[in-house]
Amino acid sequence: MPESLSATVGARGGNARTLIGGLAYSLRLAIAGNPNCGKTTVFNALTGAHQHVGNYSGVTVEKKEGFIRHEGQEIILVDLPGAYSLSAYSQEEVVARNVLLSGAVQAVINVVDAGILERGLLLTAQLREMGLPVVIACNMMDEARATGISIDFLRLSELMGAIAVPTVGTSGNGLREALSAARQVALDAENSSQQPGIPAASPCEIHSSALHISYGPLLDPILETMEKRIAESQGMASSPYAHCAPRWLALSLLQDDAEAVAALQAADADLAADMAQVCRFVQEELGSIGRDAEGLIADGHSAFVRKIAAACVVKTGKRHRLSLSDRLDRILAHAVWGALIMLGVLYAMFQITIVLGSYPQGWLEGAFSALAGAVRGTLPEGLLSSLLVDGVIAGVGGVLSFVPLVLIMFALIAIVEDSGYMARMAYIADRVFQFFGLHGASVMPYIISGGIAGGCAIPGVMATRTMRSPKEKLATMLTLPYMACGAKLPVYLLLVGTFFPHNAANMMFAIIMLSWVLAFCVALLLRKTVLRGEATPLVMEMPPYRMPTVRGICIHCWERTWMYLKKAGTVLVPLSMLIWAAMTFPALDPQTALPFENEIARLSAGLEREDLPAEARANQEEALTKVQEELDAERLRHTLAGSLGTWLEGATSYAGFSWRTDVALIGGIAAKEAIISTLGTAYALGEQDPEDPASLAELLRADPTWNQGTALALLVFVMLYAPCFVTLVVIRQESGSWKWVAFSIAFNTLLAFGMAVGVYQTYRFFWMDV
């Protein structure tokens, strides 16, 4: 395996060198492939822990880069989003294509599933048509060989014009060879473009070896004419499409690709007008015989890769590749047994999370309490001490104490994903979705948003982009925030662990099921009223079952947990400080505080008497504590946050919420993680024993305004009310209107409040002695 090199990286483009740790990274290679082909496994095997995970600019599609040293060359590996083609049908395809078009990568390692080579080669053909240097990594060769499939790699290389290498991502076999081949073809391409007399930015010269596929007697001559005109255009040198073969741009124009049309218009308006006229002529000619250019090009791709696969793939065995998966699916994807097993898997995940996570969670809570006590004992009493203890430690510590639970949950989700069972869950759930008027493609956005708990509504909303029906897309988008995202999980775990400690796992399971039920019911309501329309069926791929690797689980788990931790550091620290300030200022008027302070001084002086009887001392200590609590409550109510919370308490008290809870829920609109940090800040400020600060759970249990009814009402409210700010922004991007953002805020919050009031008042009526 290549030697890994730890580093950090910034963005670059073209042939520029990126400095990392003082070294020049002269090569940038992309890893591309279909979903479920083992692409990310290959990436993880090559880079190990030396990765940077973020998001592509302007979108929420995950961006992953890895840093390695191989054969004396420092290399950046870019793991592109999984895509079936380079069209602009999904956000993932757009991102992958834009990275390739930018010229920021010198070669592509195209990972294909060796067992279904023909399907993977559709993307390979498009990469080669772009003129990119490509190495084909025929992955999962161990599974292919086990089912009697063999591949003529030399023949495949000749026909595709790209080196083909057998690989096994899980064991690392062949990865070194694939990386070496990609490095070599990248260097060869770069050297050829720098030969004397050949301009480095000339698409005509650089892409002379691009793959040419025949699309029939009508399109071929037109493509040649379009290709020649594009290659001769001076304006194309500064276009985003300057790094691709002119023929590939011509194909994109014929398929009415909006981004390609816009790019050509910006680069050469006259040429764009001529090309538009040609495209209209082609569409009219094809329309007269009942065809269209997009379908004809797709047929050409399919016919080409079918011939390649027939010439290179030999099936010598009698066993079917997916025979084991088929046998398992007879049970796991069964209409009845499959649904019961899925519920059992979800229940087991929560049992494991609660039981295993409770121990380290308790240790962390104790550590933060000890840290708060140490800081109070070290620093003099004042604003600085209050800021550190009541703002930073109480706020962030309350969130970080749930890291063990989040870590375990993400590990279990990684196992479900990597094993292939996640797709079966989606398949089983689709039968229910159809009943509620939702498209089958809604399944994955719901799961991504937290349908199995621990997801995020932001990529979930983005995933609705592939849905064709606007009404089904909106119904999905508006109810996705009900799912148990990773930010809500700590809130659920806090309330469940505090008020239902003996049935924590059962309660968590019930919460997840309730989020699904409410999402379905609200979606059905929307589809019967403001979003009426017919539901359409689902078409999806079922990957084979595979054994997850420990390495893959650890990497996936760490990536997601690290994102959670970064959010705690970058968002919650300043937010906790802001909330602390709002709960500290303005200070209570001295005249208002004077009666309380006089009474505290009188009671404290009385406690200094050595001859005070024990019973009288106990009564006096109790009275002192009560006066101190009244003073602190008055101080908190006088602050900006207290004033706002008190104003809202007139209405929210019907749901059992105090002003502290109101302020926490307002902070939750910015980020749901802030609910815990705000409660921690509020109750730390009200805590009367700085030498022995209690955990947030203990403070809630000790507060007489809290009970199981309050906890249930808050659980329902947090589940349903307005999404976080970033999710609202993404809803605006995907819906194209602020109207639906306003609808999401108003409708969801009113629904949440009504449900919370109903839950709390029902609890009072049946279980509270009032």
UniProtKB/TrEMBL annotation:
Residues 26-188 form the FeoB-type G domain. Keywords: Cell membrane, GTP-binding, Ion transport, Iron, Iron transport, Membrane, Nucleotide-binding, Transmembrane, Transmembrane helix, Transport. Its main location: membrane. The chain crosses the membrane at residues 331-350, 391-416, 436-462, 474-495, 507-526, 568-588, 711-731, 740-760. NCBIfam families: feoB. It is found in: Cell membrane. PROSITE patterns: G_FEOB (PS51711). InterPro entries: Fe2_transport_prot-B (IPR003373), Fe2_transport_prot_B_C (IPR011640), FeoB_Cyto (IPR041069), FeoB_GTPase (IPR050860), G_FEOB_dom (IPR030389), Gate_dom (IPR011642), GTP-bd (IPR006073), P-loop_NTPase (IPR027417). Coiled coil: none annotated. The gene is feoB_4. One of its GO terms (molecular function) is GTP binding. It comes from bioreactor metagenome. PANTHER family: FE(2+) TRANSPORTER FEOB, FERROUS IRON TRANSPORT PROTEIN B. This is Ferrous iron transport protein B. GO terms for cellular component: plasma membrane. It is a multi-pass membrane protein.
